[in-house]
TrEMBL record:
This is Uncharacterized protein. The chain crosses the membrane at residues 26-45. Keywords: Membrane, Transmembrane, Transmembrane helix. The keyword Membrane applies. The keyword Transmembrane helix applies. It comes from Paraburkholderia lacunae.
Amino acid sequence: MAVALVCAFLTFEAIRQGVTNAVITGFGVTVGALAGAAACLASLAHREEIVSHRRLRSLATTDAQWRAAQ
């Protein structure tokens, strides 16, 4: 939400200062790309955490099965 407000403010200021539409569009595309990259990295980190948890659970199950067989 804060990022959207900052982008809106900067866009308003750019228009007020007479910056061309191409520059404003470029700024918007850049911010969108950075936001998308940040979302992807956050998603990958969360996915790796889930995979790691599953591996640990699998190892615990294997260990329990091995101990039961002894």
